[in-house]
Amino acid sequence: MDLPVTQPLTESLLASRQTSALTLLLRGLRKAFGDVVAVAGIDLDVASGECFGLLGPNGAGKTTTIEICEGLTPPDAGTVQILGLDWQHNATALRQRIGIQLQETQFPDKLSVEETLRLFRSFFRRGIAADEAIRIAQLDEKRNARVGTLSGGQKQRLAMAAALVGDPELLFLDEPTTGLDPQARRHLWDLVDELKKSGRTVILTTHYMDEAERLCDRVAIMDHGRIIALGTPQQLIASIGGDHIVEFAVSGHGALDPQRFTAIAGVQSHRVDAGLHQLSVINLHSTVPQIFAAIGALGLELTEFRTHSATLEDVFVALTGRNLRDE
């Protein structure tokens, strides 16, 4: 695939970096914990320089898949190649070439931000200076602050900086913004944008679909241990057939036949979730008046009505019949 040409943050970030057409290759990946199948036969490729999102609800298998890729969890079956290497024969080399931010990282509370990053930098033969990691993570004002005094968002940025000090070619970010307030989430998004511009390969897991749309070149949606959709955010949104989602609720005693709405020109699909009707439509300006007319003809009264542009959340609903956070 053609990847965007970007400018590095600094020359040191890309110095001596080896690139290949494929950074991650998974074939037939499986993992079970007792009777629970967490990963059920995944095939996946991630190109060099790509920001790839692995999406799905809690329990979908995202974190298990990433932990296998990171060498933290052994698979039951399948092939895993990272940067052309495998964990069985090249573990030491791989640890020097990847960066990992876990869902939650525990740092010593009494160390300062700078001390923490100097410690992590000592684990790698090559990398960037702690000062550079502090600058990238926008933690200059907290350089001498003890970790125990940092906010949740600041600790997440520190975890990102710790993942960067080895100057990784491949960076794993496992739900990096879970539990953060909106402002802290935006700060992390800006940081991921900077990492993308540096030419790194980033693999991001999240259950925030807006985050994936904002950051990822391609995404795979997981459910029950399988990949159920794969493509660019735009391709997946286009796959549900409509540019917009119309949602409404009605009251009254008239019968509401779904075919009454799917027969309207421009309506691609109809479903009902807890009394809320959801229509995927192409042209709002021509379709909405017809929806109003159909509701009125049935003697029903609108109690709710709203529209929004189709999103990856709507793709998940169309594929599974339920909302992302139902579980």
Describe the structure.
There is one protein chain. The chain is an alpha/beta fold and 327 residues long. The protein folds into 2 domains: 11-234, P-loop containing nucleotide triphosphate hydrolases (Rossmann fold, 3-Layer(aba) Sandwich); 241-309, Alpha-Beta Plaits. Helices cover 33% and strands 28% of the residues. It has helices at 11-14, 62-69, 87-95, 113-121, 130-136, 152-164, 182-197, 209-215, 233-239, 258-262, 284-297, 312-320, and strands spanning 22-33, 36-47, 51-55, 77-82, 98-101, 170-174, 201-206, 218-223, 226-231, 244-251, 267-273, 276-281, 301-309. Strand 6, helix 7 (182-197) and strand 7 (201-206) form a beta-alpha-beta unit. It is elongated, with a radius of gyration of 23 Å. The two termini are 35 Å apart.
Helix and strand topology:
Layout: H1 11-14, E1 22-33, E2 36-47, E3 51-55, H2 62-69, E4 77-82, H3 87-95, E5 98-101, H4 113-121, H5 130-136, H6 152-164, E6 170-174, H7 182-197, E7 201-206, H8 209-215, E8 218-223, E9 226-231, H9 233-239, E10 244-251, H10 258-262, E11 267-273, E12 276-281, H11 284-297, E13 301-309, H12 312-320
Helix pairs in contact: 4-5, 4-6, 5-6, 6-7
